[in-house]
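Q: Convert this sequence to structure tokens.
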Amino acid sequence: MGPALLPENLARLRKPAALDVVNNGRVATQMPAFKDVLDADKLQQVVDYIYSTPETMPSWNDDMIRASRKTLTTEKPGSEPSFNADLENVFVVVESGDHHVTILNGDTFEVITRFKSHFALHGGPKFTRDAHFVYFASRDGWVSKYDLYNLRFVSEVRVGINTRNIAVSDGGEYVIAANYWPHSLVVLDGRDLSLIKTIDVTSLEGESSRVSAVYHARSRQSFVAALKDVPELWEIPYDLKQPSPPTMPKRIVMNAILDDFFFSPDYEKVMGATRPLDSGTSGEIGTGQVVDLTLGRKVADLDLPGMPHLGSGISWQYEDRMIMASPNLRDAEVSIIDLENWQTIKRIETKGPGFFMRSHEKTPYAWVDVFFGPHKDKIHIIDKSTLEMVRTLQPEPGKTVAHVEFTKDGQFALVSVIENEGALIVYDANTFEEVTRLPMSRPVGKYNVYNKTHLSTGTSH
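A:
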């Protein structure tokens, strides 16, 4: 699940900070503390080993990408869904406990099908705009294309050794993958996942960098990449009229490294969290910046202490303006930001740090989990008109609950019990009463077709 522990991937984490992480664990991750397991000498040996260069560096080049590609069906895809359900209200549920995916009917909450996936899917599935196809990416580099109409895999390819996520153009013309290792962006033909081009990620100063994530900016016909190790933001345009594949990045040089992006609803501006050099240390304090993609520069600073999780932020109309809300991976609060002047207008205290926040245009409420700490079994519900917390749910005492997603009409909220013997709990989004629960194996994420393809402001894209 974690990144490849190579010296080239640890440039921003100095050895003393790494030793602190190994000793004391790392906030907002699955990394535990080992100070009570190994003595100081052994812990130092571990860190020294991690920072040593292997005799042979692992590689994954274009020839390897091409050789890995597989066509998984030769049947012509049907032009209509093969099952009886409202396709727009279907959920794709990622179960990481046993590495499966469940396709769920959002009207009846019945399973349409369930199938095995690659190990450790990450970054959320990405849909074509007509929802005919959905693409998955795994931590170990596999990108898979799945025919949602006909419930079968179409093709797959391995794009790297350690992959973060993918982004997909509306019609599935292009798929672009973000890699931690090798340091690259891989552009694929979305029809058959054949390789178009590998873009080596190197700054103007010649420094190589991991890619934190890549996003699709629909209204701009471009992909936007967050770079992990250098103060640059990349926008990679494409032209479907030519067609011109996305290959040449437009570089926006920053005064800080930005991570964990949230886009304004029109995709003209992007909010990014700044991370200090020794990321993960106990003294880490975060903030943020706003970048205008058209102007190609920073236009505002953000007051966001702790570790804001902007990638899980949502937005809605509040009084006479648009606002966004972000959970925090370190501090027990939700930050509310005015999207006109970029000021933090309120901080809502929670029972602990949260990972996911979700809402829907047709519900008056926003839901946020308490992912870390003793209250990990809580879900907070916030009134979007008053910015006040109105309810706290405890779906399964003692168990981690997270990642709310709404049905197409916003009438039901689905909550995950993120345990190997977990569940998907369906709530009435108006009364907060439990409707049903479905046993599942660590359902880390569920994704409603309508909300994703229509870019609902209540969910991440």
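Residues 1-57 form one domain.
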